[in-house]
Amino acid sequence: MKKLRSLLLSWEALLVVLLLICVVIGSGLSPYFLSGFNFYALTTNAMEIAIMALPMTLIIIVGEIDLSVASVLGLASVVLGVIWKSGHPLWLAIGAVLLIGALAGLINGVLVTRLGLPSLVVTIGSLALFRGLAYVVLGDQAVSGFPASFTTLGFGTIPGTEIPWSGVVFVVLLLIFAVVLHMSRLGRQLYAMGNNKEAARFAGINVRQIKLVLFLLSGLLSALAGVILTSRLSSARPDNGVGLELNVVTVVLLGGVNIFGGRGSLTGVVLALLILAVIQNILGLVNISGDIQSLVIGLLLILSVLGPNIARRIQVALARRHLATGRS
User: Cβ distance 178 to 190 under 8 Å?
Assistant: First the structure.
């Protein structure tokens, strides 16, 4: 009974309720909301954010943050377009882009773990650096005309379904991250690092090495998201993904991951991703402007910081009240 009560009062349970409310509102506002094509559009548009949110979840759990993810995505998109336009095969361009993404993440990781710089400051700087490099490489131009075999990755679907191939990529990555975070020794180490970095170090956990790998992984998957976005838009531009770092952070924090580290789950992050995707989809269906959508994301970000903390305080208060009642 205690476990059931705790589950019903959890932040994840509240997210499920919020998601159901959003679905009901969406189906009431637009007759197209529950259509198969709209499901395809909703999921496809969210995949780049979803992929970048996976390593971001781990990074925030250990008490750090990476605000450069969208800029790495943009740089990856530009480099992919330039290499392909120069006559090289796409597989070579994709491989080079993934290496560049890993290198970008490695730079962030080295500055944070080896030089001891705050990840917030480092990644704000690299956010500007990588986006600036994208503009230096391509200017204000764009590369388009990619072959159909490549664009299928971005907006193609599994034959006979409305499930995008990019969604398959996300699900595979999600399963890997879920096993690592919730079912492995490394996952327990990540939570330990977020709760108390010094205690984790004294316990024999290689804090610096693990953080370095997490930043490298963040850069790698941001580059992968850049490949998928380029494929979906069939266009490589230096402004691809501008502002998506806000969406990624919103999803992770709204999912219940503590901004100070040590707490959170991928279940909550996936639910928050669905909520954000549904809200954006509803706003698009009713022709709400992009400025209002940005306002909504900002409000969700504030809620994502306040909500889980308020929910935990309520849980603690109820637990103390139950304990006091039991004693009396």
Answer: no
C-alpha Rg value of the chain to the nearest Å: 21
- 186 burial class (0-12, 13-18, 19+ CB within 10 angstroms)? middle
Burial of 125-147, coded b for 16+ CB within 10 Å and e otherwise, reads ebbebbbebbeeebeeebbeebe
* Token pair listed for 274: 């669905």
Tally the residues of the chain.
328
| Right CATH for 2-327 from 1.10.3470, 1.10.10, 1.20.120, 3.90.320 | 1.10.3470
> Which residue do the tokens 């709760």 mark?
195
Q: What amino acid is encoded at 179 in this protein?
A: V
Half-sphere exposure of 255 (CA within 13 A, CB side): 28
CB count within 10 Å of CB 199 equals: 11
Two structure tokens written together for 111: 């500055």
Q: Which distant-in-sequence residues (6+ apart) come within 8 Å of 100 by Cβ?
A: 75, 76, 79, 223
Place of tokens 């327990």: 188
Domain boundaries, the chain: 2-327
Q: What is the pTM of this model?
A: 0.91
* Among candidate residues 273, 280, 278, the one with its CA nearest the CA of residue 255: 273
Give pLDDT tens digits along the chain (328 positions): 555 455 555 778 889 999 999 999 999 888 888 888 888 888 998 999 999 999 999 999 999 999 999 999 999 999 999 999 998 999 999 999 999 999 999 999 999 999 999 999 999 999 999 999 999 998 888 998 899 889 888 878 888 888 889 999 999 999 999 999 999 999 999 999 999 988 999 888 999 999 999 999 999 999 999 999 999 999 999 999 998 999 999 999 989 899 888 889 999 999 999 999 999 888 888 887 777 777 877 887 787 777 666 766 766 666 666 666 655 5
